[in-house]
Amino acid sequence: MDFTVKISGRTRNISPKCGQKPGLVGLLREPKWGHLRDLHKAIKLCEPALVSVDPTVSSLGSNQEAHVFKTRSGSCAAFLANYDASSSARVSFGNNQYDLPPWSVSILPDCKTAIFNTAKVGAPSTHIKMTPVSSFSWHSYNEETASAYADDTTTMAGLVEQISVTRDTTDYLWYMTDIRIDPNEGFLKSGQWPLLTIFSAGHALHVFINGQLSGTVYGSLDHPKLTFSKYVNLRPGVNKLSMLSVAVGLSNVGVHYETWNAGVLGPVTLKGLNEGTRDMSGYRWSYKVGLKGEAMNLHSVSGSSSVEWVTGSLVAQKQPLTWYKTTFNAPGGNEPLALDMSSMGKGQVWVNGQSIGRHWPAYTARGSCGKCSYAGIFTEKKCHSNCGEPSQRWYHVPRSWLKSSGNILVVFEEWGGNPQGISLVKRSTS
Fold it and tell me: Sign of the C-alpha dihedral, residues 394, 398, 404, 407?
């Protein structure tokens, strides 16, 4: 949490000690939620003076200041700030003494009583327990790998930007073309496969050769651009290259963010042929918007019954581009419910046709989880916790969406996870 004080043209960032940053769960998290609530209440009590006059700023010490809002009618509110990142300070204000922890602000709605300090957490801490209440019996349906020049594709010369084609109707766009390999290619005899290199503007890319997954690459928030580079096994004749480009949301902040690109913009090259390096960027490419399962609405209650699902021992395990379906009954009680998706890779989840969100537990947090102190200038790298774990494991399932029995759960898995590890859990706190 970043508490920003901007008074009289000055800006200081005071970061209260609200605990570390645990994984998302979609429900209230204490003590952070309660601490922010108390901050809002304190500022609300200062409102009569805060919105009426400019502050008077006075020094209380070498790194301490008082910002006082006082109206002619007698309303008064004060903010006592300690900008020292390592030492506490006792300051005199009015006729009272106040103890200010390092890098903190105390709020006095009446200029006398400090009812809130950003570094003193009064909200109770809670211990969250997730208790599994049911596992599932799964059915699976494998998404087809799209091929160039099929009836449901559009073909044009060169590579195009993804969002300009999908119009944000889906996260997915297929890029497809044929790679013709002469029977006299030297690599067919030497066994040294050619190197396929693909440059993409982001955000993730799955590459298939002749229907088989060759590899997956993805960017990051800071660096969405990515490069796929891998030696690939090609046979004489026509080889099918299918690339599934994935957009992970749209940017909504930044300089000219509306011009930021996604998708494969090239070049796409094949190195190690008799001719040297072949640039395929100018080839005729076929494009298919979205997935077959999306077109059939497999996530919906009605659409989920439109295909033949595989059951029992034949259910796909750790296979990319796979849909999973199961049914379950609503558990008793009134505790909040969630799905534990830690065994899956990346995709999306629906309950009774309603999306509960995109999951990506295979994308784990990086960085160093060391000693935590929020004192000093705040950065997003402060007080990391749960390094090596996904940002979200549990996905909230609203009880209002559930029937007493026969609820339909559908999961689309991009990367290939283990659905047997998915469980429905109850959330309790202590």
Answer: negative
